[in-house]
Amino acid sequence: MRKDSRLSRVLHVLIHMGASNEPLSSSQIGAMLATNPAVVRRLMASLSKAGFITTIPGRGGGWVLAHSLENITMLDIHQVFGDGSLFTLGLTDEHTDCAIEKSINRELGAVLDEAQQLILQRMKTLKLSQLAEWQ
């Protein structure tokens, strides 16, 4: 199963946007992420719809933050892309009548749920401005 790296990629872009005095174009962001500007536009459209960024049209325009990094949490951005599982680990459902499989799924599911809740709680307290303190 492929890892979903949208969160880390978007966080990267948002920190750059917070440090920039100029709008960033889809081409600039695409070069930063080594991806096509069309992919960037899809990512940015989700952030724009959620109200975290906006566009400045025309020559010299591009994407800009709609809020300061201090007012955005990692959880805010995670939620833009869905509340799917944070883990690529999965439970099996091939032998639904097997007592061992049921036991493993129950306990592994509980561990994964607990770990996910801890991660989400931490994301809720982590502001993007804290991520920008790399200098």
What average pLDDT do the residues reach? 88
Q: Which architecture name does CATH use? A: Orthogonal Bundle
| Content of β-strand | 5-15%
Percent in helix? 40-55%
Largest sheet geometry: 2 strands, antiparallel
Q: Tell me the span between the first and last alpha carbons.
A: 35 Å
Query: Which CATH top level class fits?
Result: Mainly Alpha
Classify the fold: give the CATH topology: Arc Repressor Mutant, subunit A
Superfamily at the CATH H level?
Winged helix-like DNA-binding domain superfamily/Winged helix DNA-binding domain
Number of E strands: 2
Number of domains: 1
Strand order of the largest sheet: 1-2
* Structural class based on helices, strands and sheet pairing: mainly alpha
The geometry reads as elongated
Structure report:
The protein has one domain: Winged helix-like DNA-binding domain superfamily/Winged helix DNA-binding domain (Arc Repressor Mutant, subunit A), CATH 1.10.10.10. Helix content is 54%, strand content 6%. It contains six helices and two strands. Strand 1 (53-56) and strand 2 (62-65) form a beta hairpin. It has helices at 6-19, 26-33, 37-49, 74-80, 99-125, 128-131; strands at residues 53-56, 62-65. It has 135 residues and is mainly alpha-helical. It has a two-stranded antiparallel sheet with strand order 1-2.
